[in-house]
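Example 3.2
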Amino acid sequence: MSTIRLHRTTTLTPEQYIAGLTDFGPGRAKLLGNSADEYLKVHHKGRSHADVTEGSSGIWERLTYDWSDPDRVVLTTTESNVWGGASGHTYAFTRLPDGTTDIDVAVVRDGKNFKGWILGLVLKTIGKRVLKRGFEKSVDAIEIRNASLKNREVVVGLRPTKAA
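Structure, written as tokens:
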């Protein structure tokens, strides 16, 4: 079993990051590179929980998402072609006095077959860089999306004025 811990400070609020993390619409791969649209299947989505199958590059997993705690999101693997046992992800958010947010992620990978064991070993060694790069890209993409939404709100709020 491999546990990889990642950290990033962002200008996003926890709510903004959670909104990106739990956006299961088309284009999810732009926010989360390891979630290709062709693998994505939302079995159920409620106010603070979801049951989703996602993956990429021949690796898929069915996850239960729980974001009922505003400072924590837990993804539990319920089925996968390579992961089993205690596999999943936990995102913990700490609001900082300067308005930024610390995001701490724990990724647990428990291989359930030979391919999973090999991938788990790779993650323990060189794979952390790949996971870190993917996590940082997701934070950057959600920051850009949030800035774009904010700019759209400002533009929509403008009223044309009559020329004097």
